[in-house]
TrEMBL record:
Alphabetical list of SUPFAM superfamilies matching this protein: Alkaline phosphatase-like
Residues of the signal peptide: 1-20
Residues covered by the Metalloenzyme domain: 220-303
Family annotation (InterPro entries): Alkaline_phosphatase_core_sf, Metalloenzyme
Alphabetized Pfam families for the sequence: Metalloenzyme
Keywords: Signal
Keyword presence, Ribonucleoprotein: no
Organism: Maribacter sedimenticola
KW Signal (keyword) present: yes
Protein name: Phosphoglycerate mutase
Length: 360
């Protein structure tokens, strides 16, 4: 009997020490907002688009998001970015200040953009469409999941239903909940409710569910399983933009900012994540600058001027709080080396040659 008690105590102490050791390793939430322009993040309301036929409810939009200055306007649109990240983290991409973030792929639409974000390099030779083809490239999610200390501690949630193919869930073993997929396994009451509700809400696009469902599926999974690396891909902004609905695009951007704020607030209240978690936030591509031919705001792709221009936001315990940056050039392919460095992942430096970002 004493031997059993000794073993039990030893196992208990091992579990406590193991949990403490695991908690010392940082956590990373990689978050993307589909097709959001740097202008809308950094310069506030675009008056040309506001005054164009793309905006139906001008008075309502003005009341919500127009300020006396560009700085006041952008804060109204994205209060979490400008009241939290700008104060405690880093923001890149305001080209008016010489802060530039660019894609390295030349396709300038979603699948190639997400491949670059998640794998650390462009692959124009093989990824030239948004078709549901399984990605032959290894994402940072798969890389982490293949290494013992992170196996089973990686997950992805997305509004767009192509993400199981981008992440290659079959090969990688990374659980991906995307499009109108239901949560699976031993479900909480809220997950059961989300499964029931997601198709009872308006289905605006069959391939992209509303971001609020993606967000809460992710949040419930995080609460239950405490993964170390989480990817969340919000999608509404790009689809509203393609539809030429500038007011809905701006509202979606505002709402997504609030969802990210909600997630950050939860993370800072959870002992597993508090003061040991990084948020890396970006977009898969830019868009046109207005209403001119080859520069239409509704469009992106290699023929659209400015679609290669993106942005990046970073928040975390060792991130130097410099706020909005100027006179710097970054590229999207630097995200994977940065995550790999934070999580101490072993990655192929011959295949991924971009340098990690200097956060401290």
């Amino acid at each position: 009997m004493n031997g059993v008690k000794t073993i039990s105590v030893a196992l208990f102490l091992f579990s406590i020490l193991g949990s403490a050791q695991e908690a010392q390793h940082p956590n990373v939430f990689l978050i993307t907002l589909d097709g959001v322009r740097w202008q809308d993040v950094f310069t506030g309301m675009d008056t040309a688009l506001f005054n164009s036929s793309y905006t139906e409810h001008k008075e309502e939009l003005a009341q919500q998001f127009v300020g006396s200055t560009n700085e006041e306007s952008r804060e109204k649109i994205m209060p979490f970015f400008w009241n939290t990240i700008a104060q405690h983290g880093q923001l890149y991409g305001n080209r008016n200040k010489g802060s530039k973030v660019d894609l390295t792929n030349t396709m300038l639409f979603s699948y190639p953009g997400y491949n670059e974000i998640l794998t650390g390099r462009a692959d124009d030779a093989h990824i030239d469409s948004n078709d549901k083809n399984y990605n032959t490239n290894i994402t940072v999610l798969e890389l982490a999941n293949s290494q013992e200390k992170y196996t089973g501690k990686v997950a992805a949630f997305a509004s767009w239903d192509v993400f199981p193919f981008i992440i290659n869930d079959k090969r990688s073993g990374v659980p991906v909940n995307a499009g109108y997929m239901n949560a699976k396994g031993a479900l909480s009451e809220r997950e059961q409710f989300l499964n029931e509700m997601q198709r009872q809400a308006p289905v605006i696009w069959e391939s992209v569910r509303l971001d609020v469902f993606t967000h809460h599926f992710a949040k419930e999974y995080v609460k239950k399983n405490h993964p170390k690396l989480v990817y969340i891909a919000y999608g509404e902004t790009d689809d509203f933009a393609h539809g030429g609905l500038f007011d809905m695009y701006m509202k979606a951007l505002h709402n997504t900012d609030a969802l990210i704020a909600d997630l950050w607030q939860y993370v800072q209240q959870d002992d597993f994540y508090k003061d040991n978690t990084y948020f890396i936030i970006t977009t898969d591509h830019g868009r046109g600058e207005g209403v001119r031919e080859h520069a239409k705001w509704t469009d992106h792709g290699k023929e659209v001027q400015g679609a290669e221009h993106t942005w990046l936001a970073i928040l975390g315990p060792k991130v130097k709080p410099v706020g909005e940056t100027d006179n710097v050039q970054l590229f999207t392919d630097q995200i994977v080396p940065t995550i790999s460095k934070l999580l101490h992942l072993k990655w192929d430096t011959k295949r991924i040659t971009a340098k990690p970002l200097l956060l401290e």
